[in-house]
Amino acid sequence: MLITAIFSSLATASPAAAAPRERCFKETGYCITGSILDYWEKNGGLSVFGYPITPLQTEWNNDGWNGPTQWFERDRLEDHSSDRQGILAGRLGAAYLDITGRSWQNLPKDDPNAVGTGCRYFAETGHSLCGKFLQYWSKNGGLERFGYPISKEMHEELPTWGGTVQYFERRRMEIHPENAGTQYEVLLGLLGRELNTYYTGGCGDVISSLQKTAQAFGQSFACATPLPMVGVQIATQQFERGQMVWVPGQTSTSGGTIYVVFFDNGRNRTVWQSYYDGWTEGQPVTITDPVPTGKVAPTRGFGKLWSEIPSVRNTLGWAVATEVGEAGHVQSFRNGNTMIYRSSSDRVYLFYSDNTVDDVNRIK
Fold this sequence. Notes:
Structural class: alpha+beta
Shape: elongated
Largest sheet: 8 strands, antiparallel
Number of domains: 3
Strand content: 25-35%
Distance between the termini: 91 Å
Radius of gyration: 26 Å
Number of strands: 20
């Protein structure tokens, strides 16, 4: 009876749980396992997500969720199994635009009455999908995989490549003419790598058009902060004894920055000071002093700063030209240095962390 009882107990015991399946990649040294591996394989694998670039780890996302997360070259996958939502992809397209100072809510929208033939308009975001991007979106997962379009189709200069792109809630699509006629003509941007490097403090790539300039100045501009602001609107104004430069905030919720550039006799060097731009559209600027002949009273954010801070006013003197808006690039570096490129003059301000500044021609 005792032997029978023992065998009966063994027969009803639960089998040991099988070890979860795992795939490892020598290219990055990381592995994928469990539910995230199943999702990765069933939804496009390497061509859609790229290689894993982190281990599976617990992270907070931008929506306040906390749980198992793994980063890939082109995506961030989140395991929401505990709340019965399965594996979800991060909203990396929206995050990228926000961090680079271009909140999608503020980007120009499409006219729903002027959508081209063969295009599809999405009222949810006010943007359309056309041509090769629409074909790729429709054939490769559509709304679930990419989310809604959140930008127009546009030309963009990225750190290592420039071309036609369009942003979606979760992705960036890129048209690569060098791959025309192949399945790789439309590629997905490396948003996972770019955003993860930004969040973790790693070195990114310098904007392609500024790379030779950065290289010429060695270690001062060697470790770039990822996600530079490319092709953003900047403003400049010339004064009697210097210049003001305005750049937008790094995110859609942060204000802009005004740099005051002037020659410091004590240091025998051109220097800079930075100020938060507290001016808002429509806010009046009051300057009571009479404007000398041939001079200009600054307006908007420049005028507010100039009128409210006597040291700025005394250092710069009166403006000698009106404010000029233009397209530019803002490339920050991990050591606190910054490059500001002005397209109208093809010149670059090199702002150093010791508050000195050089103004140089862009090296081509």
